[in-house]
Amino acid sequence: MKLSLGPLQYYWPRQQTLDFYESVAAMPVDIVYLGETVCSRRHELRLDDYLDVANRLADAGKEAVLSTLTLIESESDLKALRRMVDNDKFAVEANEMGAVRLLAEKKVPFVAGPTLNIFNAETLGLLAGLGATRWIMPPEASRDLLVGMRPANIATEVFAYGRVPLAYSARCFTARRFNLQKDTCEFKCIDFPDGMTISTREGQEFLSLNGIQTQSAKVYNLLADLPDLAAAGVEILRISPQSTGTADVLAAFRARIDGNTATLTGDSCNGFWHGRPGLEMIGKAA
Amino acid sequence: MDPSSTIELVCPAGGLPALKAAVDNGANCVYAGFKDDTNARNFTGLNFDDAGLKEGVRYAHDHGVKVLIALNTYPQTESWSRWTAAVDRAAGYGVDAIILADPGLMAYAQRAHPNLRLHLSVQGSATNYEAINFYRERFGIQRAVLPRVLSLAQVEQVIANTPVEIEVFGFGGLCVMVEGRCALSAYVTGTSPNCNGACSPGKAVRWEQTPQGMETRLSGILIDRFADGERTGYPTICKGRFEVDEETYYAIEEPASLNTLELLPELVRMGIRAIKIEGRQRSPAYVAQVTKIWREAIDTCLSDPAHFAPKAAWMAELNKVSEGQSYTLGAYNRPWK
Question: Do B18 and B145 have their domain in common?
Fold first, then answer.
C-alpha cells in the first residue's frame, strides 16, 4: 500500500510552504499532490513555483501530481487550469468536471479527485474510459460503497488522515469572521495554518473554517482501519498536510503498513469509512 | 413568438396540489420527484407515486406546461437499478425532461431513452462552461442549472461560451455551499444530499425548551439556541450560530432567502433561458403565491425591460414567505462575495 500527501488545504506563507515541501522530500511518502485546491485568490505559490517543487520532489523519488481548484468560476481560473493541464510533465488531479473535459480532450492520464462525486461503478468506469488511472473516494463514501463498486483497471485512494474537507462555498467564512468581503479579504486565512475552529454554543469543537472550505474540527484517522482498507482493495492512503506533525503521521502509517506498531493520539473520527456519520469513532482510535 | 417561451418559469411541485397551483398560476414548467431517495428533496409526505405523476403530467400537459423530473442524487452500485428504473418510469410517463447529476446515470438515460431531454442538475456542481460543455459532449445535456455561487458577470461568461441552455435559481431557500459539494449533514447525521437526497433530516432533529431558551439539535449537536420571542429556525448546520473566540454568530450564513426579482432585466438581457423557484418542500399556497408574482414580474419585464422595477407589493408578498423573512441577491451580487 502506498502513501500520498494530499494537496495543502491551508494558506501558509510562501517560505513556510517551500520549507514544508523541502522536508517532504525526506518523508516516507510515495505520492505528493501539489497545488491550490481551495481558493483562487491564494497566490503565495503559483503554478511555476509548484512545478519547481514537483521537479525537486520527483528528483527525490516521489511521484508529483498537480491538483486543480475545486471550484472554478472565472475566466482567469480557467486560464490557470489550462496552463496546469498543458504542463506536459506531471499528472493532474481533476477536482471538477471542466478539468476532466480538458484532460480527456488532451488524452492524458489523470487522477479523478475526491470532489467529482464518484459513487457508482458506471461513473467510475466512464471516467476510467476518459483516462483516469486513479480515483479518490468522496470523503463521505463508505467501505461498503467501495466494495460494491469493484473498481477495475483503476487504483483506489482513500482520505485516511486529516480534517475532512466537508463543503465548499462561493463565500469565504474566514473573511466573514472579520466582517470582510471575499474580494477584499486581506488574506486573513494565512493567519490560520490549520483552519479556524468553531464550537457549538456549549463549547463543543465542531467545524474548522478554511476560507471557502468547511472542514471537520476532528481529525479523521483510519490508522486502526488499515487491515480493513487493504482487504477492501485500497491501494493508496491520503494524508492531509497539517502545520505540525505531518512527518509523524506519515511515519505512523508507514510503520503500520510495514507491519510494525504505531499510534496517533488526539480527538479523531472515522465514521464515513464505516458507513456512519463522519464524526463518529468506530472501534478504538490508534 | 410567445414572450413567455423566451424565459421559462420553473416552479416546484412537492405534490399534486402544488403542481396544480404552479400550473394554475402561470408556471411554464414544473419540477417534481419520486417518493424516494432518487431526488434531492426526499422528505416524508412529499413527491409523487405513479398515479400522482400520471395525473400531474396529464394536468400540466393539458395546460401547456412542461414536467421535469428530478433524479438528481448519486446512485450507489447496490441501488443502481432503482435509479435506472426511475429514469424509465419518468420516460414512460412522457415527461419533458429529467434533471440528473450523476454521469453514469446520464449515460444510461442517453442509451436507453435517446429522445428524452436531459438537464444537468444543480447537484452536478458545474460552475463553468468547460464543465457544462463536458456534460453536453458526453451525454447530450440540453440545459444546465447553475449552482448558486456565481456572480452575474460569471453567469454571463458561461452563457457566452456554451450552446447549453442556462437555468438559474431566482427565488427560495439558499444553499450557501456549492450544491453537490456539501457533506455537512453526512458528517453529523449520516444522511447526505448527494446520496440520500436530504440534508439535516427530521429524524435527527430535536427541539428542546430549556432555561436558556429553545435549543435545536441535530444528532445531539447544538445547532442554535433561541431567546424567548426570537424567531426560531430549523437546525440546518450551515444556518446555526456557533462560537469563535467567545463571540457567537452565524458563522456560515444568516438565514435568508434568495430573491433576484430586481435582477430580472439583467437575466433576460444575458439570455438566461429559465428561472427556477426553489421549494418543493413548501406548501401549495407558497407555490401559488410565488408563481403568480414571478409570472407577473417576468411578463412585465419582457414587455418593457428598460423600465422594469419590482413592485413594492411583490417584494412585500415575497418577503412574507421568505425564510428568515429577509432576502439576499446571493452570489449574483458581487458584494456578497
Answer: yes
Structural domain that includes position B222: 184-249
How far does B223 lie from chain A, in Å, by closest CA? Answer: 7
Contacts B225 to A, Cβ<8 Å: 201
Task: Identify the CA nearest to A95 among candidates A107, A112, A81.
Answer: A112
Q: Which residues of B touch A272 (CB under 8 A)?
A: 186-187
Together in a domain, B100 and B209 = no
Q: What are phi and psi of B73, to 5 degrees?
A: -105, 175
Answer yes or no: do B18 and B141 share one domain: yes
What residues of chain A lie within 8 A of the CB of B133, using their CB? 101
Distance CA B178, CA A276 (A): 23
Nearest CA in chain A to B137: A101
The answer to whether the complex's ipTM is over 0.90 is yes
Is residue A1 scored above 70 in pLDDT?
yes
pLDDT value for B109: 98
Grid cell at residue B106: 446520464
Same domain, B197 and B67: no
Do B57 and B32 fall into the same domain?
yes
**Contact flag A71-B181 (C-beta cutoff 8 Å):** yes
Whether the CB of A110 is below 8 Å from some CB of chain B: the reply is no
Structural domains in chain B (count): 2
- Pull the grid cell for residue B251: 458563522
Of A74, A123, A148, the CB nearest to B104: A123
Mean pLDDT within A99-121:
97
d(CA A229, CA A29): 18
Q: Beta strand pairing status for B177-182 and B165-172?
A: unpaired
| Cβ distance of A206 and B221 shorter than 8 Å | yes
What's the pLDDT tens digit per position in B240-283? 999 998 899 999 987 778 899 999 999 999 999 999 999 999 99
CATH of the domain at B264: 3.20.20.70
Domains, chain A: 2-165+219-264 (3.20.20.70)
* A96 or B1: which leads in pLDDT: A96
A115 touches chain B (CB under 8 A): yes
Task: Chain A: give the shortest CA distance to residue B181, in Å.
Answer: 5
Whether A138 has its CB under 8 Å from any CB of chain B: the answer is yes
Q: Give tens-digit pLDDT for A44-96.
A: 999 999 999 999 999 999 999 999 999 999 999 999 999 999 999 999 999 99
Bridge partner list, B17 = none
Q: How far apart are CA A184 and CA B45, in angstroms?
A: 45
